[in-house]
Amino acid sequence: MVVPSLDYYWPDVIRGAREAAAASGARLVLRGATYQAADERRQLSRLVETARVDGLLVAPTTTGDEGEELVRWLQGAGVPVVLVERAATVGPHQEAMESVVSDHVFGAAMAVRHLATLGHRRVGVTTTTQSPTAPHVRRGWRQACVELGLPLDGTPDLTTVDQRDPGWPEALDAVLDACVASGTTALLVHSDPEAISLVERCQERGMRVPGDLSVVTYDDEVAELCDPPLTAVRPPKAAIGQAAYRLLAERLADEDPQRPTHRVVIEPRLIVRASSAPPSSGQA
To answer: Please, which residues have CB within 8 angstroms of residue 238's CB and are 6 or more apart in sequence?
Structure first.
C-alpha cells in the first residue's frame, strides 16, 4: 500500500485496510510517498520488484505528464491494482481502473444544503492549491448552489495556498475581505487546518462565528477541537481502506479473466456542530 502521507487524512484509511487484511490473514506492506509522481513510482517499483507483492493499493498522482505516465505504469505493473481515493482511465478507450473513492462531490453538496436549510443565501467556498480533493469539493459546491438557486456571481470561489505557506496570512485576509464585500454569510473550507485558522482570524477581526460567518470544514480530522467546534463533512476514511483491500482480495481470488472492473463510491457524513447557525438578523 502506497499513500501520499502518513500523518494527515491517510492514517484512518491505512487502519481500515490493515484491519481488513489482518482479518483475512494477509500482510499489508506500507510505504509513504510525498504527493510526487516520481517518488510514488520509485516506491511502487521497489515493492513490485523486491517485495513479491500480490497486489497494490495506491493513491497515486494522476495529473500532469508524470502522473499520466505513472497511471500507465500501474496498468502494466503485472499485479492487480486498486486506486484509493483516486480514479483514472487508461488506453485508447479510456477504460477505468478499479478504485474506491469518497463521494466528495456529494459531501460538498451536502454541506451547502445544510447551510441553505439554515437560511443562508450566499455560500462561498475556499480550497487549497495542489489538493486532489479540491476539484471535487468545488464541483459539489457549485452543483448544489445551482440546484438551490443560490447566487454564484460575486460569491467567493477561491483557491489559496495552504496554512503552512508564508503567504497564508495574506490569503486568509483576502478570503474574509471577499466574504464581507459580497455579503457572504457562510463558507465551506477545505480542509481543517485552514478552517481553524480562518476562525481564529475571524475572532481577531471581530467577526463572530457563526454569528457573522458560518463555517463548515471538509475533512473532520481535528474540527471538533476548534472553538467553536466546527461543523464538518467527514469522508469515510476507514471504510475506504476496508473496501479497497476487499476489492483487491476479490480480484486476486477471482479466476475469471473477464471479471468486470469495479468502482466503489462511498458517501461522506455531515457532522453538525456549533460553527453553523442561521444568519444573523438582516443578513439572510
So the answer is: 12, 13, 15, 16, 19
